């Protein structure tokens, strides 16, 4: 892979990023980025799947097995 020289950085457009727990990221200009909520978004889907699975008979063909489908 050939070496490609990078253009010099424009000091007016440079932004620092601070990663954290309360806010996912805080930029040097004060912009706050909220953390992604993968767990909370999938929680209702997980609850529904667990309820459906709990109503199925153990050992039956309708129970989804890992790797089968």
Written description of the protein model:
By secondary structure, the chain is an alpha+beta fold. Helices cover 26% and strands 12% of the residues. It contains 1 helix and 3 strands. A 3-stranded antiparallel sheet has the order 1-2-3, with no helix packed on it. A hairpin with a 4-residue loop joins β2 (25-27) and β3. The longest helix has 18 residues, at 38-55.
| Average pLDDT over all residues | 83
Count of individual beta strands = 3
User: What is the terminal-to-terminal distance?
Assistant: 42 Å
Global outline: elongated
Unreliable residue runs: none
The radius of gyration computed from the alpha-carbon positions, rounded to a whole number of angstroms, is 24 Å
Strand content: 5-15%
Return the structural class: alpha+beta
- Share of residues in helices: 25-40%
Quick one: biggest sheet?
3 strands, antiparallel
Strand order of the largest sheet: 1-2-3
Helical segment tally? 1
Which sequence of SSEs, written as H and E, runs from N to C? Answer: EEEH
Short characterization:
The chain has one helix spanning 38-55; strands at 17-19, 25-27, 32-33. It has 69 residues and is of the alpha+beta class. Strand 1 (17-19) and strand 2 form a beta hairpin.
Any chance you could write out the topology, listing elements then pairs?
Blueprint: E1 17-19, E2 25-27, E3 32-33, H1 38-55
Antiparallel strand pairs: 1-2, 2-3
């Amino acid at each position: 892979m050939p070496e490609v020289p990078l253009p010099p950085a424009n000091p007016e457009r440079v932004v620092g990023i601070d990663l954290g727990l309360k806010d996912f990221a805080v930029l040097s200009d004060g912009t706050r980025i909220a953390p992604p909520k993968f767990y909370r978004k999938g929680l209702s889907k997980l609850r529904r799947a667990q309820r459906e699975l709990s109503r199925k008979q153990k050992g039956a063909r309708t129970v989804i097995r890992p790797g089968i489908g």
